[in-house]
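Structural prep section.
Before we set up the soaks we want a predicted structure of the protein with zinc ion in place, mainly to decide which crystallisation condition to try first. Input record follows.
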Amino acid sequence: MNPSLSSLLPDTPLPLPFLFIITGVFGAIIGSFLNVVIHRLPQEESIVFPNSRCPSCTAAIAWYDNIPVLSYLLLRGQCRSCKTGIAIRYPAVELLTALLYVAVTWRDGLSLALPFDLIFVSALVALIFIDAEHMLLPNAITYPGVIFALVARLVIPLGGGAPHFDDLEPLTRGFLHGMPLWAASVIGAVIGGLIGGGSLWLMGWTWEKLRGIEAMGLGDVKMMFMVGAYLGWRLTILTIFFGVLSGSLIGIALMVRQGRRNMQMLLPFGVFLGIGAIAALLIGSQVVVWYAGQFG
Ligand SMILES: [Zn+2]
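Run finished without errors. Recording the tokens verbatim:
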């Protein structure tokens, strides 16, 4: 399916199913950590201290009750002390992160890009769930996210191997011809960031002028600067397309269900942009090639 997968097969010391099991379990553990980030970051609590507690009865959660997905099933979704229901979000985030880690490993193989892509996906999962719950995309994720994207865009091309980023080939074929790959990659990151952040800023500004209400926070702009820098301009446009399409469909569905009175309701757009960015990372390059093929 993906060329990196077949190149992984001959020289990897691990049989592929084992690699997927390892990254899946690792993903579930990271998902468990992301649950802490999602719960505590919007409340400006420390992510490291104190240890996990039941939000209802504040009883400390023992390690054996904190095993990703499994503990939720064994406890039948209830706190051991007070029997209050545990939010389905906890096992859902753990399972989702595990599946995404397997998917990214499938796409990347054992490469220098793999850990970077896993971090990128983890940041998006945190942003998606925080935005869904609090309509908020914290600077504590988006600011370091921009720095992370720039570092990745510098380090991965310097590490050699196949060009990982989708925009590199068209950029070096075009106006960055003859430039070292790492430099083209960093310039591509800035272009992608400006296109991602700029589009969202422009959409918010236009909406504000048309409707006289603030439609989008700057959180979306910063998030898309980070996504744009990492994915490059082509996959960023695709991300926004995915985001607008899925956001509109869900928005219309909700309006139909709840009646016209909620027309002014705000949707957490970051959720849809985040889903779009993950989709673009996983299958975007193939979609771009297919789309280009439609027009010769
Ligand atoms: Zn409890």
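Observations: The chain is about 70% helix and 0% strand.
Flagged for discussion at group meeting.
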